[in-house]
Specification:
158 residues, 6-stranded mixed β-sheet, 6 strands, globular, disordered C terminus
Amino acid sequence: MTSSIEAIIRRLASRKPMRPEATTQADIYMLLTTAALGLDTDDVVTMESQLADGTRRRIDIEAGHVVIEVKKDLRAGDLTDAEKQLAGYVAQRTKELGGRYVGILTDGTAWRLYHLADDQLSCVSELELSPARPGQGRATDMARVGNGDARKDPPRPG
């Protein structure tokens, strides 16, 4: 792992209270575009993707068939609203583009991979980044797994 990727992962893992969501989004974007993820040429990574549903809602980050919603701190508050928001994005992309999408909910440190089945969003995998061990439980692995899961059979809980 290169030192710049390690530095990004350390920043993401630090979960600083004053860190804006936009900074976390930028670090995730940088990580996805610079790490060797094996993304295909049509797996474009975009930020603030507008939904084509007549609303002004925007997906924080989209990479291939993965929708990533970034929150300030997943430990604070109820995850229900964030999961509902993510479910709407995943359902809209699935309907709009006809492929299978998965969702990731993250604050940069905690990463939760979701699958949507029968309009129900289920968390199928979780990982926590450590600033002391940036190579363990990497966010790039979650994005790679998420993108692979979106193309193949849906992930199964447990």
